[in-house]
Amino acid sequence: MRVAGIMSGTSLDGIDVAIVDITGRSWTKRVETVALGSAPYPRKLREELLAVSNCETHTAAISRLNFRLGELYAGALAAVCRRARLPLESVKLVGCHGQTIYHESGRNTLQIGEGAVLAERTGLPVVCDFRPRDIAAGGRGAPLVPYADYLLLRDRRRGRTALNIGGIANLTLIPPGAAPEEVIAFDTGPGNMVIDALVSHYTAGKRRFDRDGRIASRGAADPDLLDVLLANRYFQAPPPKTAGREQYGREFAGLLLSTGLPLPDLIATATAFTAAAVAAGHRLVRPEASDWDLIVSGGGAHNRQLMAYLAAFLPELSVRTSAEFGIDIDGKEAIAFAVLAHETWHGRPSNLPSATGASRAVVLGKIILGEQPAPPLRSSV
């Protein structure tokens, strides 16, 4: 079955699309990537999304963005199909995560990006709104990607930890020969979110991220500030646990800026903080790890300084990227939501209670049926 996955993460940098072919059943299924692409958010739209994320705001703004994102998701999918010379109708199902604008772990969550608009524009069935069902079953609504991590990366002999560094960093630990219920997954803390906010301040909005870690490489991480940041009890709390913009958004960046440290040093400290939090999380649940790979994906995998910190803080692990395992660094989460949509379409649960804390495995998301043929669609991003 050909499935498209659409993902826009907490970094608010844009839309990732993955088109995959899924064959086989249960844990023996194969996932082959057919096409990948991404589309950045227009600057004004990104500012509007930031304005409604984790804050008191007007419901009218959220409603309008909800429908507009549905249009943008449809346009992004159409653009990827066109570039890959794939007929849109060759895709049989779309899984769309949506854009998280609020997540209160274990209590409520809100992802916008209207699935009905996406279904209407493409003529395809859409699975969306994945997280609420896990929360209803007693879980935290996150992380959900570990289901795909286990499917794609498990190994009989070597331990594998999948680390995705988006706005937030999250780990999926898969012991050698592990069964699904033995998987441990959780958010370690900030990923790129704090770094991006500081870079935007440092460059007066001209840059959104620290390309290759160049700014961090010119600064020096402040050990005293790093110790203070790591003293937060979140890092000693056992999983399952989740983090988000509510912890590491604008207010957190403002607290760092109030220290008065030079901005390159602050960016270096934020970069080291992300890596140190990952290391603390890994050692919390796996204090001894031999014959173990740390497999990195997400935007943070492009940050050389961050990758160097990971290797320094976790010398016992083999630090690699997901590309070495045939999984696109930037497309992994979109691929994951294609897999989750496929499971939902076939009526199969795809949360891992050991990762989310749910009382049981449940079928995730809402299905909106498409109606072929849809009207001609062009990219609107």
Structure description:
With 381 residues, the protein is of the alpha/beta class. It is built from 14 helices and 12 strands. It has 2 domains: 2-143 and 331-368, ATPase, nucleotide binding domain (Nucleotidyltransferase, domain 5), CATH 3.30.420.40; 153-325, ATPase, nucleotide binding domain (Nucleotidyltransferase, domain 5, 2-Layer Sandwich). The chain is 38% helix and 22% strand. Strands 1, 2, 3, 4, 5, 6 and 12 form a 7-stranded mixed β-sheet that branches. The chain has a 5-stranded mixed β-sheet with strand order 9-8-7-10-11, with helices on both faces. Helix 12 (304-313) links the parallel strand 10 and strand 11 (318-321). It starts with a strand and ends in a 13-residue tail after the last strand.
Task: Lay out the secondary structure.
Layout: E1 2-8, E2 14-23, E3 30-40, H1 43-52, H2 59-83, E4 93-104, E5 108-112, H3 115-122, E6 126-128, H4 131-136, H5 146-153, E7 159-165, E8 168-174, E9 184-190, H6 193-202, H7 214-218, H8 223-230, H9 245-248, H10 250-257, H11 263-285, E10 292-297, H12 304-313, E11 318-321, H13 332-345, H14 353-356, E12 366-368
Parallel strand pairs: 1-4, 4-6, 7-10, 10-11
Antiparallel strand pairs: 1-2, 2-3, 4-5, 6-12, 7-8, 8-9
Helix pairs in contact: 2-3, 6-11, 8-11, 11-12
The dominant shape is globular
Q: Radius of gyration from the CA trace?
A: 20 Å
Which sheet architecture does the biggest sheet show? 7 strands, mixed
Helix and strand element order: EEEHHEEHEHHEEEHHHHHHEHEHHE
| The top level CATH class name of the largest domain | Alpha Beta
Mean pLDDT: 93
List the domain count as a whole number: 2
Give the helix proportion (percent range). 25-40%
Structural class: alpha/beta
Q: What is the assigned CATH homologous superfamily of the largest domain?
A: ATPase, nucleotide binding domain
The end-to-end span amounts to 27 Å
- Total strands: the figure is 12
Total helical elements: 14
**Beta-strand share of residues:** 15-25%
Unreliable residue stretches: none
CATH-assigned fold name of the largest domain: Nucleotidyltransferase, domain 5
Label the CATH architecture of the largest domain: 2-Layer Sandwich
